[in-house]
Amino acid sequence: MDDRSMMLLVNPAAGRSTSAAALGAVIEEFCSADWHPTVYFTNRRATEQVRDYASGYARVVCLGGDGTLSQSIAGLMELPAGERPPMGYIPMGTANDVANTLNLPLRKPAAAARDVVCGQPMPYDVGRMNGQSFTYVAAFGAFTAASYATDQDMKNALGKAAYVLSGFTMLPKIKSYRTRVEFDGGVIEDELIFGAVSNSTSVAGMIKLDRRVVDLSDGRFEMLLVRTPKNVADLNIIVSGIINQEYNNSLMTLHQTGHVRFIFEEAVPWTRDGENGGDHQTVEIDNVKNAVTLIV
Predict the structure, then answer these.
(1) Is 132 exposed, middle or buried (0-12, 13-18, 19+ CB in 10 A)?
(2) How far, in Å, CA of 53 to CA of 104, rounded?
(3) DSSP 55
(4) 99-157: per-residue pLDDT in tens?
(5) Exposed, middle or buried: residue 171 (CB in 10 Å: 0-12, 13-18, 19+)?
(6) Does this model's pTM top 0.90?
(7) Cβ proximity of 205 and 242 under 8 Å
(8) Which of 15, 21, 140, 236 has its CA 20 to 30 A from that of 181?
(9) How far apart are the first and last CA of the chain?
(10) Distance separating alpha carbons of residues 296 and 184, to the nearest angstrom
């Protein structure tokens, strides 16, 4: 294998369709640093492309949004651990949760490409939800549908505001779920409107977690649970907690865990990394510690 070979995966629809236009500057940066990129456009799911071709390259780089990165890492997870090349990320998406967590340059493709060239390898934990990989979050409940139900044209036109607007339209539809949560620290049984298991300081661009709390390679996820509000005062506690990043109060709780099981009385819709994750009555989530290597 050429030790400077690179699989460059490009999602031309990401970043208000500016990713393809950025390609020239990105390739120039890589070639100037004596890397040899081969360009793949996401004309089929990135997971399949990475699974089929990545092991033949010294490095994989994806240019797109968090969804492109998620699919690319899912492809790496289908390879044996010893055949997973390090991955670089050039963020051109809408929410950019992972890019914000990693402090990567947003929509500055040449600068992000230089980071890929000059960066250092960092081990990164990956999640398994009922056997399916996710990169930074698996969630259910209030507003989670907004991340994948929001129209792509709306995302391209409005950016993050599209998620917020879509979320507000779902307010009357918020549902409560009787849930049993079994995790490393114990068991919780309660009525919940939201649950998220994440490895990120940013979820959907709206929920922020303290960087001093989140360790991307410690084998543990941050699990945020939100109980059902019974009145306006309860709702204010939730809103205040999100705004002030204070997630341990009478309506919200934050735990760290490497394994968690959710058991519901009915099948509940989930998202994985902002995409539809299916309806499940029981969900098992595990942290695969140091599963992949990111260049940051």
Answers:
(1) middle
(2) 26
(3) G
(4) 989 999 988 999 999 999 999 999 999 999 999 999 999 999 986 654 444 444 544 55
(5) exposed
(6) no
(7) no
(8) 236
(9) 23
(10) 30
